[in-house]
Design a protein that fits this description.
This protein is an alpha/beta fold. The chain has ten helices and 15 strands. It folds into two domains: 158 residues, NAD(P)-binding Rossmann-like Domain (Rossmann fold, 3-Layer(aba) Sandwich); 165 residues, Dihydrodipicolinate Reductase, domain 2 (2-Layer Sandwich), CATH 3.30.360.10. The strands form two sheets. The chain has a nine-stranded mixed beta sheet with strand order 14-13-12-11-7-10-9-8-15. The radius of gyration is 21 Å and the shape is globular.
Length: 337
Amino acid sequence: MKYRAALIGCGNIGSLYAEDPLIKGIYTHAEAYVVCENVELVALCDVNKENLLKCAERWNVSSVYSNVEKLLAEQHPEIVSLCTPDKTHADLLDIILKTPGVRAVLAEKPLALDSGSAERLVHLAKKQDVILAVNYSRRYSTGHIQLKKIIQSGEIGSIQSVSGFYTKGLFHNGTHWLDLARWLIGEIKSVQGFNINNANPTDPTLNAWLKFENGAEGFLYGLDAEAFSLFEMDIMGTKGRIRLIDSGHRVEFFEVAKSSYYSGYKTIQKTHEQEGELGNTLLHAVNDLVTCLELKLQPQCSGADALVALNIATAIVKSAQSGKPFTLKENMKEDVA
């Protein structure tokens, strides 16, 4: 069976990244649908006419729209990708989820810009019996899935610290980091946020202290996106260390070894590095969505997962505003599952 898919938003992640000669692999929703043998990309929508027509020509899609409701009414897609700007996600998802015939949605992050809207959308998807997936892409990376297995196996021992860097907004890119941390390490128990200068009031880039349920602590540093783009994570265990660098495109592994400089001391020494395997995550996400439709499963990154990441980010903002630590509600995901 082939599922009818529609793409809403024909910008970078929707289609344009496919034109970047430096990008290797499938990095756009449009290409993922075209390549997936179980899906047919039948319609596109964007208010930017240039991007819309460019996308239509590249992927040979004849049905193009500037209005989401009209597309949904005329094309009857079973799968919808939402790749529009962050501030539009909540309103458009509400329309999509209420549309008869839509069976699955693959949304870009964040699910919404506030926890209340996101929680309402997760409950709406459940009520409408629509599979809601969110593209926290590293969950769909074969390299990162293997990395999770290594951590869970105890190869680097008990996790002591998880720290890192991000740019471009706590909700926009920060939730990528927070989702990855809780997926790899476990639930985050409490947080404290710290304001930085010139914070964006809609999506501030804050520093944050984190406490995990397993006892590990960490610190997330927000940096200036005007200077450069950065996404890194450093996981310190009792037996070794794993560093995700270059946005997770490269992963470095370290182990405990005898010091080369001081007798009787142990240190951490790099053993090897490998590719993070981020190249085809969107194709994996689309394939996962198809599997979920056929077998009635939950996606590798669900709307409930995205809500937890958003709740953590919201707690960091509230903590920064109050100047006090914030304890997260227990079992947040189970409340909306």
